[in-house]
Amino acid sequence: ARALAIDPQILLMDEPFGALDALTRGFLQDEVERIWESRRKTVILITHSIEEALLLSDRIVMMGRGPQARVAQVLDVPFPRPRHRESLDQHPAYHDLKAAMELHLSQETRAVEAARVR
C-alpha cells in the first residue's frame, strides 16, 4: 500500500508472495490483478513460480544464470483478462508456455551443475 501511495509509474515487486501460505498468496495475487486493472501501471514482478508468472504476466522475461545474468528468452502471454486461476490451464497456450519455462529452468540448472563440476 505504501508503494502505491506515491502513485509510481512502475511498480517493482521482488518475490512479494514467496513466504506466504497458498490462501494468502492467492488472495494477494488477485489484489495485484485488481489494482492493475484499475490503475494500469507497469508492474515488474520477480518470481520463481511458473504458475504465478503465467497468471499475472503479459510478458515473461526469463533470465540466464549470473553473475552476469542476461535476458535468455521473452515469452508473450496471450491469456485474456481478467484471468481466473481455476481455468487458466484450459487455454490452448498454457501447457506450451509452461513447458518452455520448465525447459529453460532445467537447462539453466544443468549449466550451473556443469560449471560446479569443472
Textual characterization of the structure:
The longest helix has 24 residues, at 94-117. The chain has helices spanning 2-5, 22-39, 50-56, 94-117; strands at residues 10-14, 42-46, 59-63, 71-76. It has one domain (2-117): Rossmann fold (3-Layer(aba) Sandwich). The relative contact order is 0.13. Strand 3 and strand 4 (71-76) form a beta hairpin. It has 118 residues and is an alpha+beta fold. It contains 4 helices and 4 strands. Helices cover 45% and strands 18% of the residues. The strands form 2 sheets. Strands 1-2 form a two-stranded parallel ribbon. The protein has a two-stranded antiparallel sheet with strand order 3-4.
Present the secondary structure layout.
Layout lengths: L1 H4 L4 E5 L7 H18 L2 E5 L3 H7 L2 E5 L7 E6 L17 H24 L1
Parallel strand pairs: 1-2
Antiparallel strand pairs: 3-4
In short:
The protein is of the alpha+beta class and 118 residues long.
Looking at this protein, list some descriptive labels.
single chain; globular; 4 helices; Rossmann fold; 4 strands; alpha+beta; 118 residues; two-stranded antiparallel ribbon
Largest sheet, order of strands side by side?
A: 1-2
Please report the distance between the alpha carbons of the first and last residues.
47 Å
CATH superfamily: P-loop containing nucleotide triphosphate hydrolases
- Give the helix tally: 4
The helix-and-strand class reads alpha+beta
Main beta sheet strand tally, sense and closure: 2 strands, parallel
Level-1 CATH class name = Alpha Beta
> What is Rg?
16 Å
Could you tell me the CATH topology label: Rossmann fold
Unreliable stretches, pLDDT < 50, 5 or more residues?
A: none
**Mean pLDDT over the full residue set:** 90
- The 3D shape can be described as globular
CATH architecture: 3-Layer(aba) Sandwich
Strand content: 15-25%
